[in-house]
Structure formats: C-alpha cells, structure tokens
Amino acid sequence: MSPIRLIGIGSPFGDDRVGWHAVEAIERSGMLASFPAGMATACRCSHPVTDLLPMMSGARAVFLIDGMKSGAPPGAVRRIEDGELPDGLGNVSSHGLGVAESLALARTLGMLPRTLTIYGIEIGAPAADQEISQAVLAAIPALLREIETDLRRLVEEND
Predict the structure, then answer these.
(1) Is the dihedral of CA 90, 93, 96, 98 positive or negative?
(2) Per-residue pLDDT tens for 138-159?
C-alpha cells in the first residue's frame, strides 16, 4: 500500500509557521501511531517549488497544511480538494513560487497523488517574529480532528 503523506508547509515567521506547527502537533498527538507502521507519515516543507514534488512522489494521498490569506478571520480553516484550485492561480504564497504553481506542475507531469487535500488556515498579517498568533493556534485542535477523521476515512475506503 502506498503511503499517505501529511506535509506542513511554512516558514519560521509568525503565523506562516502554522503548517510546521500543525505537523508538530500531529506528531505529539500520537495520531499517526494508530495506523499501521509507515502508512501515514508527516513532514515539514519550507521550499515547495523544489521540495513538494519529491515529498509527494509515490504517495497515494497527500494532505497539505498551509497558511492562507483569503480575507477570512485569522484561524479560519478551509478544506480544499484537488480540482478546487483554479488553473493559473497566481503566486499568493510567501514561499516564492508557491504551492499552487508546484501543484500545477505536478498535474502537468502526472505526478499528483490519487487524493490531494489542502487544509488552509487563515493567517494574520506577516510578522518577522517567530510567534504564532493566538487565533491561529486556537485553530489547531479542530484542524487535527478534521485531519484524523479524513485520514481514517481514507484508510477505511482503501481496506
């Protein structure tokens, strides 16, 4: 069985750390230990343009966790399935060429996993410090419950 990868995208700055912080919370929770060894793994990505495709390679499903700016209040969580991202989405990432461009390249090259789910957590204004806002931190427990529910459903569907 091909693995399921949970990839937290982020940087060391303020709310943009949310993807990394979510992966750390997943690891601390023991969530992944409740699945057969190697079925689900989590990692952090800081350079999606160069690292995201290799991290997704060989996975049957990928859950991406990243900060987003859509105008919703900080801490709002949005779940986006593959196909909901519009083609030609502009560079809206703080990671240089962004996640959308990397996913578009993966689609063109036939490298997208069978299942791709993006969990976007609305972040506040960019900050140079390393602290995550309380509004974004408050979203993490609900995000983890949603990810665990989706992960269990995906595993059950493929048993």
Answers:
(1) negative
(2) 999 999 999 999 999 998 887 6
Specify the DSSP element, H or E, that contains 117: strand 115-122
- How far apart are alpha carbons 98 and 87 in whole angstroms? 13
Report the alpha-carbon angle 103-30-118, nearest 5.
20
* Residue 111: φ, ψ to 5°: -105, 5
Contact 6, 41 (CB under 8 A): yes
Q: How many CB atoms lie within 10 A of CB 8?
A: 26
Q: Sign of the C-alpha dihedral, residues 103, 41, 142, 73?
A: negative
Residue partners of 150: CB distance under 8 A and separation at least 6 = 63, 79, 117
The pLDDT tens digits for 89-131 are 544 455 556 788 888 888 888 999 999 999 999 998 777 777 8
Local confidence band at 88 (pLDDT 50, 70, 90 cut-offs): low
* CB environment 26-43: b (16+ within 10 A), e (fewer): beeeebbeebeeebbebe
Q: Two tokens at 63?
A: 């859950």
CB 5 within 8 A of CB 19: no
